[in-house]
Amino acid sequence: MSCNTCTTKTVSLAEYASPNALTWCPGCGNFGIQVALKQALVANGITPHQAMLCFDIGCNGNGSDKIDGYRFHGLHGRILPLAAGISCANTQLTVVAEAGDGATFGEGVNHFVHSIRANFDMTFICHNNENYGLTKGQASATTREDVPMNSSPDGVSSTPIHPQRFALALGATFTARIFSGDILGMNRVFQAAIKHKGFAFVEVLQNCPTYNKATPHEWYQKRVYNVNDTDHDVSNRAAALAVSDDVNEKIATGIIYQDPNSVPFMSRDMVRKDAQTELINEVSHYDITQFTSRMR
């Protein structure tokens, strides 16, 4: 989501505080993701009433009442069309959607495809812990081959979806990958994603201490590096595909690709090109008695 609402106003982390206790498993990557997102919103000068935070079903969704501001806890795999509708209805809001790898590349993979295609102006954070954590460790579309999970004790036989390769091939205008143990790195990437004009896809490599023993926190620590500390050209899609390909030994994190000429959906919509108001300002009330009376 482009930072249309960013101001010079000083915003504090306390404004995003919630009295509700966090309920994730000890060591879960969600703690770091939540902190980094709050920090990024504050750094961009976005107050809680200027942001719309949309949560899918899953472990990520358990954070929906642990942060202040406008929040919506949606249906499994359906958070992207909801967030897209909000973004189109009020382009002045900073819209951030969150979902797990199961919802994103399983139930909601069609919504992911068309969100990229439309280039809706929003930030999408995919919590990729390579399993369905909230429903007790079933394999997801990103679970690695031969890794046993609770619903597949003999190991997964299907080739996993590669999120970065998938997003880049679909024409995404912003893709990034970061490790949930790197709060500073997440903070920087989230800030850039929020400022991007268009659909910003951020994949978070998230350890799941309870159900996914194949890729614990320490496994990622030994393998990740920040590609933005190298000479990588983030505006080169072919280079982005190449640098993001390795997900086993030398895993690139940071901003993988960004199109500097990205034009979001509502800015391309010819119906709205001369509009001086937001869609939310154009909502009218209509008398539908003539239709409902026939149902009595």
Q: Order of SSEs, N→C?
A: HEEHEHHEHEHEHEHEHH
- Which consecutive residue ranges, at least 5 long each, have pLDDT under 50? none
Question: How far from one another are the termini?
Answer: 45 Å
The CATH superfamily appears as Thiamin diphosphate (ThDP)-binding fold, Pyr/PP domains
Descriptive notes:
- The structure is a single chain.
- This protein has 296 residues and is an alpha/beta fold.
- It has one domain (13-295): Thiamin diphosphate (ThDP)-binding fold, Pyr/PP domains (Rossmann fold, 3-Layer(aba) Sandwich), CATH 3.40.50.
- The chain is built from 10 helices and 8 strands.
- It has an 8-stranded mixed β-sheet, with helices on both faces.
- Strand 5 (174-179), helix 6 (183-195) and strand 6 form a beta-alpha-beta unit.
- The longest helix has 14 residues, at 30-43.
- The protein is globular and about 60 Å long.
- The N and C termini lie far apart (45 Å).
Write a brief structural summary:
With 296 residues, this protein is an alpha/beta fold.
Helices and strands in order:
Elements: H1 30-43, E1 51-55, E2 70-73, H2 79-89, E3 94-100, H3 101-107, H4 109-118, E4 122-128, H5 163-169, E5 174-179, H6 183-195, E6 199-205, H7 217-221, E7 224-226, H8 237-243, E8 251-258, H9 265-268, H10 289-292
Parallel strand pairs: 1-2, 1-3, 3-4, 4-6, 5-6, 7-8
Antiparallel strand pairs: 5-8
Helix pairs in contact: 1-6, 3-4
